[in-house]
Design brief:
By secondary structure, the chain is mainly alpha-helical. It has 3 domains: about 100 residues; about 40 residues, no CATH class; about 70 residues, no CATH class. Helix content is about 75%, strand content about 0%. The chain is built from 11 helices and 2 strands, in the order H-H-H-H-H-H-H-H-H-E-H-E-H. A two-stranded antiparallel sheet has the order 1-2. Helix 1 packs antiparallel against helix 2 and helix 2 runs antiparallel to helix 3. The longest helix is centred in the first third of the chain and has 96 residues. InterPro entries: EFCAB14. This is EF-hand calcium-binding domain-containing protein 14.
Amino acid sequence: MSGDHGLNRLWANITEVNRQIALLTSAVTQLRTNLKSASDLINLPKTMEELQKSVATLGSTVTSVHHDVETLQTAAEEQRKRVEDLQKDLVQSPLEDLNSTVMLYVRQSDQRLHNMEATAFNLSQRVAALESAHPTSTKEDAAGLVNATHWSNESHTEAAESLKPEIREQLQLIHMLTNAPDSDKEERDDAVTSPPPLDKKKPRSLRRRQRRGLLLPRTFTLQDLEEVFRQTVQDLDGTLSRQQVERHLGRVQSLQDYDTDGDDRYSLAELKPLLGV
């Protein structure tokens, strides 16, 4: 607003300068025209005095114009600073807000990771304490715990693989009995209290029949198993490696018992007993 006012004053002063110059020119012209007699010479000092006043007025007007120009420059500088401050507010403030949001997200992520690590550490401590307190029974409990938490903590699955096949057979039998109806439990009490002696040299087919109905870590149907073969080897007559089986079906206890030909690969027919088919 001050800039517009200064500009208006500048134009007014320039107009006044032009008017004064026009008056001065007119006076000089008139002086030349009328300077013909002694009477004109008598009036010459008065005319010169008026001319000096006009020159003084012109100088004052020029000074005022200069002052107005300086005022206009000052107003323009202030306007430029205001524009810079506005640009800074429009750009820097959102950037600061964005940085604050990013830092908050990073802190929250670090806190979540810390909590997950603490939970995993506490779980490991509890498993270690159980194993030290009950060396035999806690191995069986650890096997079930490892199968349940396989996808969240890969390191705990090492314990399940290291268990002996005989202990895992007893654990699987106990699991089947606890999930069976009450009538079946009564009929199988004798099998729990006095399990048959384990023979490491039993035929592979007999051991596979004993494990028929083994529960997988996840629920699978025959169609699901066939779809795994189609996606992995594009052929139902193909075979899967142990790693491929565990990646799609989860870890299976004593998976090698289902390898009838001993090639460490598994066909659809060899994996069907896992589903009770």
